[in-house]
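Thread: "does anyone have the structure for this chain?"

Original post by V.I.:
We have the sequence but no experimental structure in hand. Need at least a predicted one for the grant figures.
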Amino acid sequence: MICLPEMHNGSVISTEMTLLLCNGNTNTGGEPMHEYYRKNKGKLQKEMDGYLKLVRSEIEEVFGKSYPQAFAEIWSCYEREMLEHFPFIGGDSSSGTRNLTGCMFFVAVGVVGKKYGLSTNDWGRLVTTLYERYFDQMPRLLRRLAGGLFHHCPGLVAKALKKKDKRNAENAAKNPGSFLTQTMEPTEEYSMIYHNLVCPIYEFCKERGYMEYLPYMCNLDYVMFRAFGVSLYREKTCAAGDGVCDFKIKRGAPIPDVWPPHILDASDPLK
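Reply from O.Q.:
Generated one for you, tokens below.
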């Protein structure tokens, strides 16, 4: 996935809940939580809340309890089943770290929601709604400016992404398994061509048994690019076994729908 936006808005987490959830490491065995994640638990907890409260009423309906209670259960799952097992892929020096930690916020909702009858498909629709609401609250001018870069400044975008390729390669040399990317020059058909060659999110989901959620997570990229007014045309994903995720912005093409997930429709050329 492209980098998840950071949430800085207010938190509904109570002081009591914060003390309950943040005091100490709840690791119950195996390898200890990496120091980077241990130090950033409080920050990650607030970031998760910033996203999940966008679907607060839906979470309360699914879980049959107040949002703070549901959030506590989701965070506990995230901390125990995910945060304690994340590989270190560069920390704050790598934007891919926030991709990994942020994507799994959403997966934790699905894992816990299963106990309350939330199907994987209904979970996918829920997180799609969440992501749509996030971009809806972003100023329209900012979204238009972002989309304009893809439409009118493809050379500038490619130059910036190639710099990111270099940083990712340097980071992966120090932290194996980190994101590796490759940017190609724009063509007459596509104003951007960008590949994820190594995806830690895919590897983590495969290792930890969360692959049923990955197609829906990949599909969220369509939400983001649609919000920017550009046409993402992706034909390969790691989730589909293609060994690479391609991000291509197609010039003058209709903007694809965001639901249902393209990757789950065998007749759909997009993924």
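V.I.: this helps a lot. Residues 6-29 have pLDDT under 50 and may be disordered.
O.Q.: and DSSP finds eleven helices and three strands in the chain.
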